[in-house]
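Z., the sequence and structure:
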Amino acid sequence: MATGYNQPGAKRQKVREPRVDNDHFQGIDKMEYNNMASLADTSAYRYYSSSERVHSRPMEDWLKYSVSYTQFRNNGYDSHGKPHHTWDDGSNTVDNYKRCIKAFFDFCTKLGVKYWTAFDTDLVPMTDSWEENRVSWDDISEYVQDLMQRYHIKMLWLSPDLHSHPRYNSGAFTGHDATTYTQAATQIKKCLEMSQRLNAECFLLWPYKEGYNAIFQSDVAREIKLFAKLLKMTAEYKDRLNYRCQLLIMPYYNCHFSRNNGWLWQHRNRRENELVNMYMWDVTSCLYFLKNNNLDRFYKVCTLPGHHMFMANVYNMLGGVVITSDVDQYDSKSFTLMMKCVLDQGAPPPGGVILKLRARECSPREMLALHAKYVDAVAKALRLASALASEQTFSKHLQQRYSTFYSGFGSRLVTSDVTMEECEDYYKRNHQSAQNDSSKYEQLDVMFQRFLDTCDHI
């Protein structure tokens, strides 16, 4: 029987931290909705009104924003690893970690976001001593629970950091050493227990370094089998803990957004053949991996906006949307299509909209402004997508374009079994009447852009 933190154990006296209510963002107003705010008023949302109902749900339900604590910590350091902010003294101590977490909760409160995400190494200073790490986890988790209760902020997901430790350079799930593999499994186990203790709604795995360098030195079949086995063990241990959360997985790939060309692959420091060697280099490879190993019933996929998100949605595997600083927040068209995908699904993904943003300048006001502009951009897109859902022009075109599949033999192609002989017979009788109509892409693209332009008053 697995032992989790929901099991009774020996009582120990709790040592409460002295309650410190200093606001690390003092002097900065909380972001509020004001659609009449002036251009110079950057402390107000023009489009995001958390309680306003859009498409039969409050906006905060559809969007379910979460802020990345990982990026919050990264935004606080310069290129030499020195901290910028007064709440961080750069030490690897529990007290310093607590101050940083407290500052982060102040930040989320100013932003008006109710969820947060983190990796386990963000919360606890890891050492080589297992017992010391356990004591630190207990101390930090109590502190975080108290903050979440006071600030009314929930944890969306906690994730084990399986890429920073030097042992994981050759992979955590797919490394060549059994001790490294068991280290990863032990870290996942502990992180799952902490996730349950903090009542996180999801649990994320990010296979960042899983792949092979050269086929002549890698047993790929063995590595993939071990990869699937650890994913399955994670799901089984979650069930033994009686922990009801959604397991998420985030495929690894590098890309950026171009205003003119849409999503482009950006290989940066990796050549294309090296990127392909990753076992989960895009959503499609991830979905096939999960399906082939009978893991698709446990996991859903977190992905960037665009094609990968649409494909995950088609297979009912969309777990969350990750917004990075590389995404162009001025591109209303792409954001609107993203939110239309969410509306078409009928419910928000369990992982919501994850804000994983890197600020150019690390001052508190700049960090707040960075997050606020993406919150507003996606909220505007939600309003546009809701208006688009009620616009008949595009839905009528879609229905007309696929009209031959709604009745007669075309409907049988969709809903029932059809033989090749029947297809041939139907073609012989109807090939002269086959239509080759234009898709009207350019016309509809102009109409779509005009629709976005004229809806600016939403």
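The mean pLDDT is 85. The chain has 16 helices and 14 strands.

Let me know what you think.
H.
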